[in-house]
């Protein structure tokens, strides 16, 4: 079964609690929390104080995606602030295995995020220490981008890599996912579907989440 993880990057921050309640009503089970530092990616978004506030208004799993330099300095702090899942970029962490382990030791699920142009071979040694892989299907830093279609083959190869090693590592995918392409993505083995504009862009997040679930369920 797949899960929908709406990204608050595309939500209306003046009505954030209301937006979160709306996606809960639609059947979302994970809240994707995009953290950008203006260095690893060319944008700045939210951080620990906002996550702490969000944690107070929802029981959803919070999935903190750290698009930041030196993620090892902050990963555990996001778990302590209320994140259930924390992903760090393979491109940003020179001690990736250690960071994954400390996230787990702090009580969080540890994830590796990987950019579209980064080869999957970079995951091989750290894969056994990850609870999930966040496959980026757009270049991180901005919402509303179009799905990079070569991500379809990369997803297929990642699924095979995990299965060949007999691991339980889940696959999350983020970028350009909507009702028009979610079925193919689910069929290829993605288990957590991040959608920002696809959920919040139409102004009816409850209905948008339900539409994604219905569109993807054909393959379940």
SS elements, strand count: 8
Taking all Cα atoms into account, the compactness measure Rg is 16 Å
Beta-strand fraction estimate: 15-25%
Shape: globular
Distance between the termini: 6 Å
Given as residue ranges, the uncertain stretches (5+ residues, pLDDT < 50) are: none
Average pLDDT taken over every residue: 95
| The number of domains | 1
- The total count of helices amounts to 8
- The CATH first-level class comes to Alpha Beta
What do we call the CATH homologous superfamily? Answer: Aldolase class I
Structural category is alpha/beta
Strand order, largest beta sheet: 1-8-7-6-5-4-3-2
Helix proportion range? 25-40%
Instruction: Please give the CATH architecture.
Output: Alpha-Beta Barrel
CATH topology: TIM Barrel
SSE succession:
EHEHEHEHEEHEHEHH
What does it look like?
Helices cover about 35% and strands about 20% of the residues. The protein is an alpha/beta fold and about 220 residues long. The termini are close together. An 8-stranded parallel β-sheet has the order 1-8-7-6-5-4-3-2.
Record keyword descriptors for this entry.
220 residues; alpha/beta; TIM Barrel; 8-stranded parallel beta sheet; 8 helices; 33% helix; globular
Blueprint of the fold:
Layout: E1 3-6, H1 16-26, E2 30-36, H2 48-55, E3 61-67, H3 75-81, E4 85-89, H4 96-105, E5 109-114, E6 132-136, H5 151-164, E7 170-174, H6 182-187, E8 192-195, H7 197-200, H8 205-217
Parallel strand pairs: 1-8, 2-3, 3-4, 4-5, 5-6, 6-7, 7-8
């Amino acid at each position: 079964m797949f899960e929908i993880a709406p990204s608050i990057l595309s939500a209306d921050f003046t009505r954030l609690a209301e937006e979160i309640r709306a996606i809960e009503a639609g059947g979302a089970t994970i809240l994707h929390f995009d953290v950008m530092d203006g260095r690893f990616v060319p944008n700045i978004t939210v951080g620990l104080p906002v996550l702490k506030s969000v944690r107070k208004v929802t029981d959803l799993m919070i999935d903190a995606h750290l698009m930041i330099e030196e993620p090892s300095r902050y990963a555990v702090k996001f778990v302590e602030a209320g994140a259930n899942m924390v992903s760090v970029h393979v491109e940003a962490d020179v001690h990736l295995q250690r960071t994954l382990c400390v996230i787990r030791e702090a009580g969080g699920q540890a994830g590796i995020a990987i950019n579209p142009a980064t080869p999957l071979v970079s995951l091989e040694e750290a894969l056994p220490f990850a609870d999930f892989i966040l496959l980026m299907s757009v270049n991180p830093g901005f919402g509303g981008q179009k799905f990079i279609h070569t991500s379809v083959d990369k997803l297929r190869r990642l699924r095979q890599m995990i299965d060949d090693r007999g691991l339980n590592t889940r696959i999350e995918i983020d970028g350009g996912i909507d009702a028009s392409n979610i079925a193919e993505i689910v069929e290829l083995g993605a288990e957590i579907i991040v959608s920002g504009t696809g959920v919040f862009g139409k102004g009816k997040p409850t209905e948008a989440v339900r539409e994604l679930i219905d569109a993807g369920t054909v393959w379940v």
